Amino acid sequence: MATATQDTELVGSLVQLMHVLQDLYAETSRPLGLTPQQAHLLCVLLDGPLGMTDLSRILSIERSSLTSMVDRLERRDLVARIPNPTDRRAFQITLTDAGLALAHEAHNAYTTQIEKRLTDLPASHRKTLITAIATITGHAQ
Amino acid sequence: MATATQDTELVGSLVQLMHVLQDLYAETSRPLGLTPQQAHLLCVLLDGPLGMTDLSRILSIERSSLTSMVDRLERRDLVARIPNPTDRRAFQITLTDAGLALAHEAHNAYTTQIEKRLTDLPASHRKTLITAIATITGHAQ
DNA sequence: TATTGTTATACTCTATAACTATA
DNA sequence: TATAGTTATAGAGTATAACAATA
């Protein structure tokens, strides 16, 4: 059946796209002295400080794994643990000035690299892509 | 400018899609007793045996990193190092029967999970997606 | 000389289980 | 009791540098 074949092809395309983007993400992070995971963490914090539990949920890692990641970034003065005034158990993980600058730098670098790969894409396809991806990721457009 | 805004939105969509697919890949590998990297390796070998150098290039990792990955998979009898008859330095990394079965299982699991997310996607969007992704990943359609 | 693959080493990522402090 | 975060531990992924064997 034609539809089934197209589905299989699309799934393969998506997996391949994931790997291509992963490689690009890693290659772009490296010269900035960041692992892809560290870059992801910093970029998430661009939207504002978060507690450990929220951050671990967004990054899809255990809180204990996050503890050591934050330790390493804090040692490099890229993030800081700010005590939460309303809950003495909790912290707000915040970007330092250096962390903010590096997060912007990483974000710009990815954007530049990905945009390079979009140059051959017609405007109509871009619109469809945005809508289709929103459907796949399960978010409102 | 409208185009610039759409570009930014598309880049963000692609990065988010990457993370969603990564998480899905990890969650699907786990119950099979595989890390996402191990699953990737096994699935690459579905297309046939490969030497260490080729495999490291396809997986975008150093040969020395691959050595330890193959060690672990070989210990579990999922892959085997077959001596290359024409080059006594080289091996062909091959799926064992168990590895082949597990690679198929992993592949089917991803396909099922991803297809679940494609149900709401109109057929016309699927066709466009396949073409657009091919452009991004830089492959012929 | 160049290439194939490994070893040694160091660091990061990650999970599980048990824990402390606070709510 | 439940939640926020940490510690201890173990295993996996990764890179760099140096190496042995073969081409």
Automatic annotation (TrEMBL), chains A, B:
InterPro entries: HTH_MarR-typ (IPR000835), MarR/SlyA-like (IPR039422), Tscrpt_reg_MarR-type_CS (IPR023187), WH-like_DNA-bd_sf (IPR036388), WH_DNA-bd_sf (IPR036390). Residues 7-138 form the HTH marR-type domain. SMART domains: HTH_MARR (SM00347). One of its GO terms (biological process) is response to stress. One of its GO terms (molecular function) is DNA binding. Keywords: DNA-binding, Transcription, Transcription regulation. Pfam families: MarR_2 (PF12802). Transmembrane segments: none annotated. This is DNA-binding MarR family transcriptional regulator. It comes from Kribbella caucasensis.
